[in-house]
Design goal:
Elements (H helix, E strand, L loop, with lengths): L3 H14 L6 H13 L3 H6 L7 H15 L4 H5 L2 E3 L2 E3 L13 H11 L5 E6 L5 H12 L6 E7 L2 H15 L4 E4 L10 E6 L6 H4 L2 H5 L15 H10 L3 E10 L5 H10 L3 E7 L5 E7 L2
Parallel strand pairs: 3-4, 3-6, 4-5, 6-7
Antiparallel strand pairs: 1-2, 7-9, 8-9
């Protein structure tokens, strides 16, 4: 019989030869682990084991999907974010490592005690709000944290509810809303990773091939249509001393900062990601 390593090498070479990904071995390894239901560590230890023909065929099917440009996360329906495993599919945006900066920023602004009303707007998979609440529980936050997840897409809310039940063991308040249009409450903390790509960026063939939902990406000619409206409307939905925390594009930090300042927010701050790019901007309602 053929070994796991043999088939993995074949898959890696196909991805490499066709230029389907910048990380052919890692992608093939994740796809093989998914096919065989093995962790990466267990898979590496089993490389010289024989592989059943049916498993080799199934692995080949996942390689074909990757060659077509479908992201690994959509094929295996899993993406790690902030140390947690989130279910993802084409109904939601795939969580990015850069977005963990938003979670860290939010945690740094919450303190460690008191009641906390948290809204994650444009929640998608729910990764931001769920990660914040999970970490607060891990830190034994002294107080009550009430989490609400809001999105315009019913399908996205279905995914975020699944992730909340799996990771938190309970379902937070789910709100179907076009930004703040159906949100009556006020909060201590509002986090959001809204659409912030320009129309031109959203129409790029390489991005279209990823099959991520256009609704979660496109935001007008300058990429700021959603952010402008969020900044305007969020002020009335914040308690005094509450924070609005926004993720934007790497080149949008100064413009988001200026919009927050013009909107009456104080303590406006730009936070950079690990690559040194502007990633998160926040402001407080005084």
């Amino acid at each position: 019989m053929i070994t796991i390593k043999d088939i993995l090498t074949q898959g890696t070479n196909r991805l490499k030869r066709l230029g389907s990904t910048e990380t052919p071995y890692l992608d093939a390894l994740l796809l093989m682990g998914h096919t065989l239901n093995m962790s990466k560590e267990r898979l590496i230890a089993a490389m010289n084991d024989n592989i059943w023909e049916i498993d080799a065929i199934e692995f080949g099917k996942t390689i074909e999907q990757r060659i077509k440009g479908i992201p690994v996360a959509y094929i295996i329906h899993r993406k790690e974010f902030y140390g947690l495993d989130f279910y993802v599919d084409s109904r939601v945006l795939i969580p990015r490592p850069d977005t963990e900066v938003l979670v860290e920023t939010a945690l740094g602004l919450t303190g460690d005690t008191g009641d906390l009303d948290l809204l994650d707007l444009c929640t998608g998979s729910g990764c931001i709000g769920i990660s914040i609440l999970h970490e607060l529980r891990h830190r034994k936050y002294r107080g009550t944290c009430r989490l609400s997840l809001a999105d315009i897409s019913d399908e996205a809310l279905t995914v975020s509810a699944l992730n909340a039940r799996t990771i938190l063991g309970s379902e937070p308040t789910l709100i179907r809303s076009d930004l703040f249009s159906s949100i009556p409450e006020s909060y201590d903390l509002i986090t959001t990773n809204p659409p912030y790509l320009t129309d031109a960026q959203s129409d790029h063939p390489q991005l279209r091939a990823r099959r991520e939902p256009d609704l979660a990406l496109r935001s007008g000619s300058d990429g700021l249509d959603h952010i402008r409206k969020i900044i305007t409307d969020a002020y009335a939905h914040l308690h005094t001393g509450g924070f609005l925390i926004i993720e934007g594009g790497f080149d949008q930090g100064p413009r988001i900062r200026d919009l927050l300042t013009a909107g009456g927010y104080t303590r406006v701050t730009i936070v950079q990601d690990l690559a040194g790019h502007d990633r998160v901007v926040y402001g407080m309602r005084a």
